Structure formats: C-alpha cells, structure tokens
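Working notes for the structural subgroup meeting. M.R. asked for a predicted model of this chain before we commit to crystallization trials. I am recording the input and output together here so anyone reviewing the notebook later can reproduce the run.

Input as submitted:
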Amino acid sequence: MARKKRKPPRRRPRRGRGTSANRQRSSSSRSSAHRDNKMFEDMRYLFPGDPSSWENTGEEVLLEALAFSGEMANEPEFKDITVDPLLCVETFTTITEELGVEPNVFDGSSEEHQDLLISILARMVQHLLTEELRHDIIHGLEQARSRWRRSRDRKNAATAAVVQSFLQSDPDGDTWSIVGLVQAIIHRNLIVGFELIQTTTEMLEIDASDGEITDVLEKMDQPHLKQKISALLDKIPRLNQFLENQVDNAWEEGINALFMGDLYLGLYSPEEIDQAAEILQPIFRAIVDKGETVQDDPEFKKQAKAVFSQLDNYLTSLFTPERQDRLRSKLTDLTKDEAYQGQWLPFLLIVQRVMSAEDAIENEKPFLTRALLGEIRAISKEADVSGESPPAT
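Returned structure, recorded in token form:
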C-alpha cells in the first residue's frame, strides 16, 4: 500500500516581524532613537567629566541654559516667528494693569525692573502660546542645532539641545513660560507692537489748527515714517505678510458687516434705496416664491445676472464726479465720527484710501453694491420693527 505524501507544515508568520506596519514602526522607533542620541551627544558638551558627577551640577546647568537661551531669538531660524504685535501690546497692558504697575516698566534698568519684566513676559507667554507657535519654535531649534553641529559650534548646539529637550517634554506648553528663548520672541513682537502704535499715531496725528485727521497717504510719504516702517519690516520679515493679512481681514469683516446691514454708513438717500429695491424686485420675488433652492435654477441665474447688470449701470449713473467728491467727503467725516472709532476705523481708512482713486467707481463697484444692499436690508429690518412699509421688494 502506497504511503500518502504528507503536506509540508504551514509556517506561521512570526509576530512583530515582516509586516509593513511593523517595519514602519521599527523604522520610526530607530529614527526617534537616533534623534534622541544626537540630542544627548549635543547636551554632553555642557556636562564635562564623569556622568556620576552630573547629579550635583546638572540641574543648575540646565536651568541656566533655559534662562539664558533668549539670545537665540536673534538667530535666523527664529527671526521669522511672528506673534500678533498688537495682541502682545494688549496682553502686556492687561497684565500690567492687573499687577498695578506702570507700562513704562521697560524704562528701568535696575535688577528689580528686569525681574518684573521677566515676570510679565512669563505671564504673556501663558496667554499667547499657541500650537502653531510651539511648532515654529521646536522647528527653529531643530534647524539651528543642525546648523551649529555642521559648523562645530558645540556650545550653542548644546544649549539648543537642552532647550529643545525641555520643550518637547512638555507638549502642552505648561512650563514654556520660563524659557528665555520663548520670552525673547514675545518680547521682540511686543516692542514691534509699541513701535507700530507709535508710527500709526504719527500717521493719524491731529492737526492742532482744525482738529482733523491729516491725510494718511501724505503722512506715509514722509521720509522719516517710511524709514520707520521699513525698519519694522526688517526687524520681523514676516511682519509684512502679517500686516497684509490684517488689512485683508479688516476689509472682509467690514464688507460682510455692510452686506448684512450691521454696519450702516448712510451712503444712499431714501429715494436711491427705493429705486435700487425696485430694480432688485424680480430677484426678491423669486426668492420669496421658490425659496433658497431657486439659486440652482438656470433661469433664475440668467435673470439675476441681468438684474445685477442693471443695478451696476444704475450705480455708475449715480456716481457722477460731483457725487464722488461728496462720497469722499462723507468717508472722511465717518473716520472722525466717534460712533465708528475702534472696530470699524481700520476698514473705513481702507475704504477712504481705495475710493480716493480716479477709477474707484468702476473698480470698487463691489463695495458700493454691498453698501447699497446692506442699507436696503437695514431699512427693511428697521421697518419690520416699527411696522412701517419697507422699500418696495
């Protein structure tokens, strides 16, 4: 009788080996261990001698490295880190008021003044530290440490390693406020905030003869102000982008408030608003009849395009050269009106600038349209509350 051939035993894959996920975890672990070893190698420069002696001096060396790491803020890896300068000033002012000290704490050079400043900066860090800022600082330390390793600058590489190791051990940022590097970055942006306010104040200074705000654009053309602004932008390279974002945000916030009727500038007469509402009536009626789903209707889109083209022509006919002059005068008055100070003043100053151009009516038609639609909306809301008849819709 022939013997049956036995199948070879099936090999079971060894656990923890061979799979893609395990190889990835193993590679990641080796990479992390390699980074830790590099960091430890860098730190050893601050701890010469037998490791058994580190217990007596280690804590003092570490604290000194953390406290005096502020000079690193001037290195190229950290020069580009920007914290909202005006928010820094606001936070500084709030803290000094809570402590009952004068904001001119910077003026003192005594040890007492310096200790107070460090205490204030530590509290500012607690208020201003964000996940993005933590990431930027850790990334900067990694880059700076690599550069110092390549140039064999072991002392700075060791200090950076100590700071990086300490900060990475606290991912929530609870103890970051005691680190000199973090305080120095906040301090630099705070100084820029004060300088921004001072420069802005000069651009918007009051003319003693008539008590009116002088022309911002003319002030910006003055050489000494140009030099100040250029110096500020050189101090923090990313400040220019930050300021551009602030302008964009102020514009978007103002335009949206206009459209929703929350910001009322009174640029149009009641008769003009009634005429515009009559032009828009087909759109209003279609929305009332069919609801918001009408916006997906091709016929409605075609109708809306024709209506807004008619509205565009109406606005062009309204703003004759004489009317444009009155509009600019109106905007200037609004920048001096106490009711529009604070939140809306930056937006009004931007509007005042863009509407001063000769081709403003053609190029800034979206602003004029949003303002008109917002005034129709605001009057309709007011009519609903008072029970009066709103503009014809």
